[in-house]
């Protein structure tokens, strides 16, 4: 199995705590990207690690049913991401238990995946860990379009910003939201391809700082924003791999991401 799309990054457990309820579900940037892409094109190669707090049989059933292939780590540690919120899941504080996730490295990628992939996406991870993958991909022969995403939480000091800038410059396509764009404008304006997510205002696609396509979305009340940006990226990449135009990819990604925030969780998208 040599997938056209390879997604590298974290799969974890999301524990969403509000004043009304506590829910637990599979989550993580790479999981969301791969799951969304798999609804368009199968199979997807998902390079990730999970720990003992997952039920591997349950996770594999959920993931494989969507055409995604996962590497299961030995269940020796946990990897849980917990969202805490006083009111709802649109405004949240995040507590992370990293577990096995920092152990993810280029050696985890199955032989042949990189050489045969048409698209490789480096999901949101700490900048230094992403850097190990951007550097590795420079050393191996591949013809893939390499994309990357980050999180505003990592743009908290000059060292991280410097590393993220280097990571973005090494990739062909970058995803960012409007707040990240403000902090990374020089590198994003110089990127071969940049997709800027504008929350409820839609999104736009740039080449070397020039806006080439833009879309708007319906205004809806956001209920749960967990994973919306990753769902956007996975949908865009999946559509692109299917040969859709940039405008079609952008429109579909914005549409699905908007649907994602309309209800709790993301499973409703796939039901």
What's the alpha carbon Rg, rounded to whole Å?
Answer: 17 Å
Q: For the report, how would you describe the main beta sheet?
A: 9 strands, mixed
Number of strands: 13
Total DSSP helices: 10
What is the general shape? globular
Order the strands across the largest sheet as they lie in space.
Answer: 5-4-1-8-9-10-11-12-13
Structural class: alpha/beta
Order of helices and strands: EEEHEHEEEHEHEHEHHEEEHHH
Runs with pLDDT <50, length 5+?
none
Distance between the termini: 26 Å
Average pLDDT value? 89
Q: Work out the strand percent.
A: 15-25%
**Helical percent range?**
25-40%
List keywords for this structure.
alpha/beta; 23% strand; globular; 9-stranded mixed β-sheet; 13 strands; 271 residues; 4-stranded mixed β-sheet
Overall description:
This protein is of the alpha/beta class and 271 residues long. It has helices at residues 29-38, 56-64, 113-116, 127-139, 158-169, 178-183, 185-189, 228-241, 246-260, 267-270, and strands at residues 5-8, 12-17, 22-27, 44-47, 68-70, 80-84, 93-97, 119-122, 145-148, 173-177, 193-197, 203-207, 210-215. The strands form 2 sheets. The chain has a 9-stranded mixed sheet with strand order 5-4-1-8-9-10-11-12-13, sandwiched between helices. Strand 8, helix 4 and strand 9 (145-148) form a beta-alpha-beta unit. 42% of the residues are buried.
């Amino acid at each position: 199995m040599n997938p056209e799309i390879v997604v590298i990054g974290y799969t974890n457990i999301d524990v969403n705590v509000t004043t009304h309820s506590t829910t637990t579900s599979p989550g993580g940037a790479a999981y969301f990207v791969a799951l969304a892409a798999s609804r368009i094109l199968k199979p997807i190669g998902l390079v990730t690690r999970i720990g003992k707090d997952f039920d591997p049989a349950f996770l594999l059933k959920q993931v494989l049913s969507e055409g995604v292939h996962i590497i299961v780590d030995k269940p020796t540690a946990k990897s849980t991401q917990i969202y805490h919120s006083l009111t709802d899941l649109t405004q949240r504080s995040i507590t992370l238990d990293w577990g096995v996730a920092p152990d993810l490295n280029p050696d985890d990628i199955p032989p042949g995946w990189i050489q045969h992939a048409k698209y490789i996406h480096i999901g949101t991870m700490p900048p230094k860990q992403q850097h190990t993958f951007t550097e590795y991909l420079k050393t191996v022969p591949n013809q893939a379009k390499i994309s990357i995403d980050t999180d505003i939480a990592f743009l908290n000091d000059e060292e991280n910003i410097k590393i993220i800038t280097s990571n973005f410059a090494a990739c062909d396509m970058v995803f960012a939201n409007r707040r990240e764009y403000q902090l990374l404008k020089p590198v994003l304006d110089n990127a071969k391809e940049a997709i800027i997510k504008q929350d409820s205002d839609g999104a736009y696609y740039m080449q070397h700082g020039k806006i080439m396509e833009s879309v708007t979305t319906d205004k809806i009340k956001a209920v749960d924003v967990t994973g919306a940006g990753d769902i956007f990226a996975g949908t865009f990449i999946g559509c692109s791999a299917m040969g859709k135009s940039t405008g079609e990819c952008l429109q579909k990604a914005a549409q699905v991401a908007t649907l994602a925030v309309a209800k709790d969780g993301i499973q409703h998208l796939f039901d």
